[in-house]
Amino acid sequence: MKKVAIVCNYILKPDRIGGMDRFFKLFDEQLKKKGYIVDWFFTDYTAFDFYKELTIYSANNTSVEKKFIEVVSHHSYDVVITHFTELCTKFYKNIYLHNPDSYVISVDHNPRPLDGFSLKKRIKKRLEGVLYSKFIHQFIGVSQYTVNHILNDYGQFLKKKTKVVYNGIDTDVFVKRTQENKNKFIVASHLRPSKGIQDLLKALSYMNPELLEDVVVDIYGEGASKEELERLTKEYKLQKVITLKGSSSKLNELFCNYRYMIQPTYMECFSLSILESLSANIPVITTTVGGNLEVVENNKNGYIYNPGDCKALAAILENIITGENNITENTSDLIVQEFHLTKMVTNHINLLP
């Protein structure tokens, strides 16, 4: 029987069951049906029911790469797949040294800075591409944006072994919006500066307070920016508008209670939150970064603006609140057809040798 190791720089949390969690679970199930033995390696994991069928090694909040090398030094694997790790590092050479016959697939989910990497870092990545790319058999980007950056970062010579496999979600678990839910907005995001939530608060501060009297913006997520967002909410006098809800494992049931999702991000690869929102028939207000334009079409299933343009975001929100703009198209059809979880799993299984 072939053995597969999947190494994920990702923390498993019972209060955050999202798109990748559902992918991991279904991918494990489908691999086992095909006769594979599957071991998973995560940055941190304390057992909970959702993952009870998976064989999991936890790095206990240290390096998941180091944890895997510890294990692979006395276990051999036919296939090694990585998610959320940095590409073209010495880690991949170490996989080869301990497990020279394994077939290695690296899936890149990592967004790039809006202004690009520094010259020093660009040179470093290009050198790493030359040194370590030979230890990776396939490079997978989760969007065309990601593939373009893999080739720009590490070298165009990787083109023949680089391809797109889009993320997907389990559309069946998302409750569909059936009513207007007037002026209720949701944000579902890590709370860090690169997600641009501070721009949303600034945009709201530009608007006439009378327009905001019946507006609700619920922000789901945790992160280092929480205190700053609380401070800005008070500074801009938005306490009656903004509520920080913390993490939730029930977003699949909550999206339908809102009219639009707002994602004012500066960095994105291919957003699962966007897929989830659209699946629930909730249009998206987001920026032009990353793979966003590969799924969101302006005025059709959402509204697009340039990252950091708070006045443009304020204008979009004002037009929605006043009724000047509104999206009535069912946004879930595209997700079912093109970005369903089963398609993502099938495409990943087809990568295996």
From TrEMBL:
InterPro entries in UniProt: Glyco_trans_1 (IPR001296)
Domain Glycosyl transferase family: 171-324
Pfam families hit by this protein: Glycos_transf_1
Name recorded for this polypeptide: Glycosyltransferase involved in cell wall biosynthesis
Taxonomic source organism: Wenyingzhuangia heitensis
